[in-house]
Amino acid sequence: MLSWTIVRTPPTGFKQFAPYIVALIELKSGVKMAGQLVDCNILKLKSGVKVKAVLRKVRESSKEGIIPYGIKFKIK
Amino acid sequence: MTIGIAGVYTTKFGELWSQGFASLMKEAIYGALEDANLEIKNLDAIYVGNMLSGNFGDQEQLGAAISGELGLNIPAIKVEAACASGGIAVHQACQAVKSGSYQTVLALGIEKMTDYAPEEVAAGLMQAASEDERIAGLTFPALYALMARAHMQKYGTTESQLALVAVKNHFHASLNCKAQYPFTLTKQDVLNSTCIADPLKLYDCSPITDGASAVILTAKNQQVKILASQVATDSTGLAGRESITEIKATKLASQKAFASANIDPQEINVAELHDCFTIAEILALEDIGFVKKGEAGPRLEKGQFKLGSKGLIVNTSGGLKAAGHPVGATGVKQVVEIVEQLRGSAGKRQVKGEAKLGLTHNIGGSGGTAVIHILTNKGKAFNKN
């Protein structure tokens, strides 16, 4: 984890998750991506900690009921 | 060649519920024409800087919508680069004059934002970011918070130093009758304000604003001239950048601008920097080369960059932070403010001494686009081209 923040004023589609942690992650390959950190003790938040990718619901469901899934991260 | 500034105008910035899009547009355009002592029929082309006219207002083909409203049939073109749309409109107007195709070109920046719910505006603005950032539920305060935390870790920048940017810019806005928030704040007010995206708090953030600004450029010589107009781009997302403790596009655009104007950063007397969040002004001070990396915070603690201090004065308008940030208008308003400073007509906000060189710095998104303009009131001495 390179850096992190806690989103307290979310955009449309993210209200039910707020407040939530978002981090900038560098993968082993060197590729970077932004993603939410879940199941996380806020006191453990520190740049440099190791994380692993997990599959989670990423947004509130659409009117059609489709649940959008995507990648989030957990502290290892 | 010379690009002269014939006329400038900016509307009041704020929650302008009594003024619609057309009213703001006409006030800015006719205001600039009056300042230039020109008539609407003298315009050869219009470039419009705007981001959200399709989302908020359902109006695309904005160039024609504006020229139609004005009863004109001249080329009128919308340009979009998120919060740098205004800077890009001025840049395109410069290119048009330089090409010799047009003699008199108007750059308009305009945005109407406050009629919509904050979460709708937040989602609209996130169109300027990258897909992984949207899926992660990031917002612009949160993107700059990621940069702020990394900068704090690498250079020891503190929340208190960030707060000083807001204190300084609110003081400047208190002298600007066009500013959205013309009142002062203390450092404690900023530090005690509600957390938006840690470590950024409410008073670290620029507001949602309505407003319009216009600049008329001409091939003829004028008191204030544009010496350099440069643009650089980079990944729209933080993950695609080499570093998040600097904005590479700012560095590249500034280097090109200083080279083409044939001056050093230290020669600039007054600057309008893109302070959408307090950390953004710190990044800009360093990346443009006014101070070394990590030095902006300590310099702010010494009281530098504030009206009345020695050396470079930054964001006399109040910046985006306190004058307001109607995204498409901001880059044009910055040029308006520097023109007023170089004409010596900025009133209570006038910088002391003889200001000869001014700079504007306009950013799109979290650093995907950077636009730098260098302006002067001097004669041939600085006219390299």
Total helical segments of chain B: 13
The helix-and-strand class of chain B reads alpha/beta
In spatial order, strands of the major sheet of chain A run 1-2-3
Radius of gyration of chain B, in angstroms, nearest whole number: 19 Å
Main sheet: strand order of chain B = 3-2-4-7-1-8-12-11-9-10
Strand element count of chain A: 5
Q: Count the domains of chain A.
A: 1
Provide a compact summary of the structure.
Chain B: Residues 233-376 form the Thiolase C-terminal domain. With 76 residues, chain A is an all-beta fold.
How would the blueprint of this fold be written?
The complex is a heterodimer of chains A (76) and B (385).
Chain A: E1 3-7, E2 20-26, E3 32-37, E4 51-57, E5 69-75
Antiparallel strand pairs in A: 1-2, 2-3, 4-5
Chain B: E1 3-10, H1 21-36, E2 45-49, H2 62-70, E3 76-79, H3 85-99, E4 104-111, H4 118-125, H5 131-135, H6 140-155, H7 159-173, H8 187-191, E5 195-197, E6 200-201, E7 211-218, E8 225-233, H9 248-261, E9 270-272, H10 278-287, H11 296-301, E10 313-314, H12 319-323, H13 327-343, E11 357-364, E12 369-376
Parallel strand pairs in B: 2-3, 2-4, 9-10, 9-11
Antiparallel strand pairs in B: 1-7, 1-8, 4-7, 5-6, 8-12, 11-12
Helix pairs in contact in B: 3-13, 7-10
Give your account of this protein's structure.
Chain A has one domain (3-75). Helix content of chain A is 0%, strand content 42%. Chain A contains no helices and five strands. In chain A, a hairpin with a 5-residue loop joins β2 and β3 (32-37). The radius of gyration of chain A is 13 Å and the shape is globular. Chain B has a domain at 4-117 and 209-217: Peroxisomal Thiolase, Chain A, domain 1, CATH 3.40.47.10. Chain B is 37% helix and 18% strand. Chain B has 13 helices and twelve strands. Chain B has helices at 21-36, 62-70, 85-99, 118-125, 131-135, 140-155, 159-173, 187-191, 248-261, 278-287, 296-301, 319-323, 327-343; strands at 3-10, 45-49, 76-79, 104-111, 195-197, 200-201, 211-218, 225-233, 270-272, 313-314, 357-364, 369-376. In chain B, strands 3-2-4-7-1-8-12-11-9-10 form a ten-stranded mixed sheet, with helices on both faces. A two-stranded antiparallel ribbon of chain B has the order 5-6. In chain B, a hairpin with a 2-residue loop joins β5 (195-197) and β6 (200-201). In chain B, α3 (85-99) crosses α13 (327-343) and α7 crosses α10 (278-287). Chain A binds chain B through residues 2-15, 17-18, 20, 22-24, 31-36, 47, 58-59, 70, and chain B through 118-120, 122-123, 126, 130, 132-133, 135-139, 141-142, 145-147, 149-150, 153, 194-200, 237-240, 244.
